[in-house]
Amino acid sequence: MEPLTLTELIARTTHRWRTLVAGLLIGTGVGVAAHLAMPTRFEAVAVLRVDAADPSVIDMTAEAAVATSRRVTAEALDAIGDRRLTIQELEDAASASAVPDSRLLRVGYVDDRPQGATRGADAVAQAYLAVRAVEPGAGPAVTGVVVDPARRPMSPLGPGAGPTALGCGVLGLLVAAPVAARPTPSRAARAS
User: 25: Cβ–Cβ under 8 A, 6 or more apart, which residues?
Assistant: First the structure.
């Protein structure tokens, strides 16, 4: 088999430009459909400052674990008051992480509505503060304050429709390119 030159490759693919366009359109359509099929999710984040009489005894990793514990999420579930929401769904939606080299704790909440995400993040943050206020025997006396309440998210999580459609369109083009570049059977081969 003879090696294919770049000029021959370009000639083959431009000769079958419809295949390339079809791959691009199919890929873009799949990208749009995938975006529409995926649920839209929003995340809101509240920021707390954790304090103690002796700040050196604060373990921020442990505080992040407390913020997503069953006790805190149960308190937050009561505060949210949505009967359709289960404790497991709330635990899956809530997250907490310590800001490195600080006493700040980021409490996040993901929901399919912006106002639900905001309400959830604030409820988990307030529930964490309430639990830490009544459990002084569970380690050093830790208190805290919300320094930045959750704000309503302006855009959903994820790349959005445009980047998803563009990425899938390029993928469709890449899949169609080898098909467009395949050799055309010669007339002699077709006659035999």
Answer: 169, 172
